Amino acid sequence: MRWLVGWSSTAAGTGALGSAGATGYDGETLHPVGSQLLWGDPDPLWAVGDWRPDEVRVVRADEQNRIAVLGVCGASDEELRLGLFTARGGALRHLTAWPGSYTVVVQVGRRITVCGDIAGARPVFHTPWAGGTAYATAALPLADLIEANLDFGHLAALLAAPDVPAAVHDSTPYDGVRRVPPGHALILRTGAREIAGYEPVASLAVAAPPADPDRAVADVRDALVDAVRARLSAPRHVPDIDPGPVPGMGPAERRAARGMPAPGIGADLSGGPASGTLALLAAGLPGLPGTVLGHGTGAGERLLAVTFNDLAVGGREAELEQAGALAANPRLHHVVVTGAEETLPYAELDGPLTDEPAPSLVTAARHRARLAAGSADHFTGYGARQVLDAHPARLADLLMDRQRRHLVRPVAALAKADGSVMVPARVYAAARRLARTPYRAGLEDLAERLRQRRFDEPGGAVAASLAALTWARPGPAARWLTGEALAEVSVRLHGATSRSGIGPGQRPGDFRARAALARAAADLRVLEQAAEIRSQRLHTPFLDNQVVRACRALPEALRVKPGARAAILRTVLEGAGVTDLPSGWGAPSQAPAAATARAGLRLAVEPLMGLFDTPLLAQAGLVEARVVRKALRGAVQGEPLPLDGLADLVSLELWLHRLLARRGTCWTGTPARARAVPAGIQPRRGALASGA
After folding, report:
1. At what angle do helices 483-498 and 152-160 cross, to 10 degrees?
2. How many alpha carbons fall within 13 Å on the CB side of residue 136?
3. Is the pTM of this model over 0.70?
């Protein structure tokens, strides 16, 4: 796990390190464990973790004007210097417009600016501390710093309404630690903090000017090519030296068994259009995309492409066939990783502590098995669905922009899937109702649904689309929460409606799509930590700032067409010179996600029942143990329950156990008790008030 941390203090001379509360109980200096100091007093900044040398860059104009960039950034040192000079006047957006995925910190005098990304995969957190403000790209170090307790209201919102930004707002699992929203920057002036947005927001009063579809797709192509090239142009990395042969194992098997990735660059090749696009782009761009010279067969020539084959649950034969056809490219070296029952969801309930909880905790072992056969730098297609696909609520956006004719194709596809002639009328009525519903009314309706425990689970594509045509809806785990927890989330929603500027400033479809992207990015961030392979970096170009911006500029009419994602990525590849795609490429996947989850539940039902014998969630007042155990038994027996809701419950329970079993702290200069949640969870029913 890698993060940066710093603070801005009110002291003008000695800085926070010399102020009250900034030293340990024995007078030792307070600093993060395993850190490297990027700059010192009065507003210090550290990089913590196993950062590569090329991932940390600091450019100085003088001692009071400097910029730090952490991550993969395609800007040269001279571009960083020009960006620093431009930022001295208060401009921010240009700091986020370089290719790559990175966090940028700018110091101009006593003003500190920390820019988060647009998707939310690289968030920024802050908390009041020692008369000023501490900030970090991870929440747990700040929670340790202030000895924060759990925010039970936030945990309830994660289960009851995870896709509703108003329910979660800027809170984190730790009471007192706040999150900077995606597309915003944290600005600190001698300890005082300000949150500023750097992305323009579309007006609700005036329709957006019509965009040229060809130009928009070309912009997506250019952004993706730049994102991939930024990774290819970075220095290549070789993991630790292989200690030697093992009888019966080849080099790749030996590396995987020892948890070591292959040297060089590789990519996922699932058979879907997103991973295939990145693999073909990385293999086809000029240069040497493959392994490092002198390490392995075909070094410097072929890109390592990894496909996961689930032997426990069938149904992925078409995807595997597509992956094999794509791997016929002579610049790809194809590796198929097989997984049996040990890679099913819930098969491994033990793992590392992550910064926050997320549903991906229950599938971390599955992903780790695939990534262990990957490269030191590994491309993945995460985020493509969220940035390219059309959220069903975008149909209401088309009505608001008077583009009714563009509803014909998506509605016809739904009618064909359902086989009912009433589908067009139902979808049109739901879209028109959403277009005429104010945001405040949507939140109030959700609060009322939570209070009355109305959780109608949609079945089928049409029902799911109709359910998504709202400003906000309950999460899949809400049905199993206690009345107290649901009431707490309802209060949070009513509190959101009383805040000034409650309107999201966007059309409902655009707003729902941004919220879905933020949740997917947060889940991916946790997955990276839970399935981390030593010396490996996961690269997700679809979540880069410039790629997200280019995808958001795609016309709604193009986005809502059935098969739009595959068509856009096919055009991207053709524009990059890749034309020999196999027949059927990009066809909709019928991957049996529900069957895989149910098989994992059947296999792990006994450990899960033991986990919820005396659950920590029940001690916090969020659930009742018998209700969750009944739901687990029902899911195993095949009852039509929302399996993703059970994943939310199990992952949160696992995260709480790992957090409370943790020893130590992220800081030196503090006593052993100076860590997050020092007193644990007290068995009480009124615990939710802390997050109000």
Report:
1. 90
2. 26
3. yes
3-state secondary structure at position 391: coil
In 530-628, beta strands by DSSP E: 537-539
DSSP 193: E
Q: Which of 467, 443, 466 is nearest to 455 (CA)?
A: 467
Phi, psi torsion values for 342, nearest 5 degrees: -70, -10
Residue 290: pLDDT band by 50, 70, 90 thresholds? low
411: part of which helix (H) or strand (E)? helix 408-418
Residue 4 CA to residue 312 CA, distance in Å, equals 40
CA atoms 659, 664, 667, 670: torsion sign: positive
CA distance 269 to 304: 9
Q: In Å, how far from its chain's centre is CA 528?
A: 9
- Note if the bond before 44 is cis, omega within 30 degrees: no
What CA–CA distance (Å, rounded) separates 59 from 17? 23
β pairing state of 262-268 and 303-310: parallel
In terms of Cα–Cα distance, which of 578, 420, 455, 437 is closest to 504? 437
Residue 457's pLDDT is what?
73
| Cα(480)–Cα(54) distance, integer angstroms | 47
- Alpha carbons 284 and 266: distance in angstroms, whole number: 13
Question: What is residue 174's predicted lDDT score, i.e. its pLDDT?
Answer: 96
Residue type for 56, please? Answer: V
With a CB cutoff of 8 Å and minimum separation 6, the contacts of 367 are: 360, 527, 531
pLDDT tens for each residue of 256-279: 666 678 888 899 998 889 999 999
> Distance (Å, rounded) from C-alpha 402 to C-alpha 250?
61
